[in-house]
Design goal:
The structure is a single chain. The protein has 237 residues and is an alpha/beta fold. It has a domain of 163 residues: 3-Layer(aba) Sandwich (Rossmann fold), CATH 3.40.50. The chain is 37% helix and 26% strand. The chain is built from ten helices and ten strands. The chain has a six-stranded mixed beta sheet, with helices on both faces. Helix 3 runs parallel beside helix 6.
Length: 237
């Protein structure tokens, strides 16, 4: 389980996170929703060690993560799929996937995992020779997810996986997220498409200006009138 308590992150004198506490139980999909600038991406970056916490704690299976570098954190089974996909455009699909396994030495296991990823994402197999920069946005997002899976994560964090994608592709990405979770990977999801995110979430938190405003099951928040008006585009009657 990922356990965050009273986490404060500041950029200069401005606090981006103002004492956040959340739990991400093993085997679940936990979603963070909120407006731009709420602190969602900052939280993911703090967990993976890309930004320093001013105070508070981050623990994974009882081990403290604050102060560790990102590479050490990845070895503990945590990975981040960053916003904007960030594939290596001048490398092939297969080369991008292999980069996801850069900390691994088990070539047989790497080949086996590439095979599994091609089962989940048949389009990546069809385009394994193609330069990643020539893929569509949806295909690049699939590649970013596949690359993250190559590290065999126990906890996969995703930052805005549906950003800039067409509605049909978004639906496909969320089906894949559910499938990744059903295969045993815990998911912490930051997503502006609140409707889709809450539908797949076991539990969800609402972030507003660096604080947790509300939490509950995905179903509870989907049915909450305040959430409907603020994030789902539905007016109160």
């Amino acid at each position: 389980m990922l356990k965050i308590r009273d986490l404060v992150v500041a950029y200069g004198g401005i606090e981006a996170l103002k004492g956040i506490s959340i739990d991400v139980p093993d085997g679940q999909i936990v979603t963070l929703i909120g407006a731009n600038g709420a602190g969602k991406s900052t939280l993911l970056r703090a967990i993976i060690g890309l930004v320093k916490a001013r105070s508070g704690s981050v623990e994974y299976n009882g081990e403290p993560l604050v102060g560790l570098n990102s590479q050490r954190i990845v070895t503990k089974g945590i990975t981040l799929v960053p916003e904007g996909r960030r594939v290596f455009p001048n490398l092939t699909v297969l080369e991008n996937l292999r980069i996801g396994a850069y900390l691994r030495k088990d070539e047989d296991g790497i080949q086996e995992d590439i095979r599994k990823i091609y089962d989940i994402f048949p389009r990546l197999e069809e385009r394994h020779w193609q330069m990643a920069g020539t893929l569509s946005g949806g295909e690049q997002q699939m590649l970013a997810l596949g690359r993250a899976l190559m590290s065999r994560p126990k906890l996969m964090m995703m930052d805005e996986p549906s950003l800039g994608l067409a509605p049909l592709v978004i639906k496909e990405i969320f089906n894949i997220i559910r499938r990744i979770n059903e295969s045993g990977t815990t998911v912490l999801l930051v997503e502006q498409n609140a409707n889709m995110a809450l539908k797949v979430a076991h539990h969800a938190y609402v972030l507003e200006t660096g604080r947790i405003k509300m939490e509950g099951s995905g179903k509870e928040l989907l049915e909450n009138e305040e959430i409907k008006e603020a994030y789902l585009g539905k007016k109160k009657k």
